Amino acid sequence: MQFTQLDYFNLEELYSQEEILIRDTVRSFVNEEVIPIIEEHYQAASCPTHLFKRMAELGLFGITIPQEFGGAEANYTSYGLAMQELERGDSAIRSAASVQNSLVMYPLFKYGTEEQKKKWLPRLASGDAIGCFGLTEPDYGSNPGGMITNAKKTSNGFLLNGAKMWITNGSLADIAIVWAKLENVVHGFIVEKGTPGFSAPEMKGKYSLRASVTSELIFQDCEIPEENILLIEGLRGPLSCLTQARYGIAWGAIGAALAVYDSSLNYSKSRIQFGKPIAGFQMVQDKLVWMLNEISKAQLVAYRLGRLKDDDRATFQQVSFAKRNNVDIALTAARIAREIHGANGILGEYPIMRHSANLESVKTYEGTHDIHTLILGEDITGIPAYY
Fold it and tell me: 271: Cβ–Cβ under 8 A, 6 or more apart, which residues?
């Protein structure tokens, strides 16, 4: 059944023609090229990598990057709407775009030299190169400042040692943006595929994000040329990238919520029990209205955040608010949708369990729900409570 957009407060009126065009283009792509194949890939735990080039052709790699570097030079509201539609298809597809945009192209554009920008940004925008982002380590996730991965200065550049974990597209990547300590200060490094001492084994056995490639990054006396260091020092470098990614996730989660709501509404109106559609029962209507309420509020939060970001006025705390809220309501919506679908809700015929399992990961990565709670708590009280 054709997807119908939930827009209870007529937000459509507030978007520009360009923003609507970008959203609708991505929506058609998802409807025609993602949804028909994604369940099969999810079941097989395989990544539909052929879609990467298609996303690049649609301008979805480097959406906000200037055209001189191959980007679409669109605004952040357009970027958000694109992430919403991609995640309506599957979190794995949105994750691939998020990493390429926010965690690879953004730091290169923001902190790269002119030579680094010219070398990599056009290739990444065209999909001729795929990137990944190495920050999380086996023993340091929510506390990135404790990272063990380190670089030492050599006569020819740097010697990198350490390991990263839970890296989207790591095994596929042509380039990794890796964060490591150099003389106890965090720096960003460009590590190219094929560099001696660098390997990226894929992590297997996932029950979530099964259509995405997740990897380790291992560095054993990995030699990095001097020209491959980024022009940024300290944790503010990687954390600024996480803010970009969290922004996209805040929109993406709405897409997953829209998918399970649309499926639930259609199912409840066609599923007959006791002689009438189950949509006619009070408890089912209560569940549908809960989803209506929370998705509508999430849409309003995302819209306002997008406009603030377009004006360069959004704070990282506001981004944390949106990521925390929108992912949480999307996961709850998926669970409620499973109840509405009854036993059928666990079948691959419906997107419910796939989105629910994916959102368990989305609630954890790019800052857990609890970490975002503490970010907001510190913002309103002025007192940090991380440990």
Answer: 277, 278, 342
pLDDT of residue 2: 82
pLDDT in tens, 47-74: 999 999 999 999 999 999 999 999 999 9
What mean pLDDT value characterizes the chain? 97
Active site residue 227: no
Q: What is the pTM of this model?
A: 0.96
Predicted confidence (pLDDT) at residue 387 exceeds the cutoff of 90: no
**Residue-wise DSSP of 336-351:** HHHHHHGGGGGSTTSS
The H or E element spanning position 167 is: strand 157-168
Look at the chain and report how many structural domains it folds into.
Answer: 3
- Report residue 356 as tokens: 């629910």
Domain, as residue range, for 95: 11-126
**Between helices 91-98 and 352-362, what is the axis angle to 10°?**
40
Residues 194 and 245 in one domain: no
- Looking at the domain assignment, is residue 109 inside a domain? yes
Catalytic residue among 33, 85, 216, 366: 366
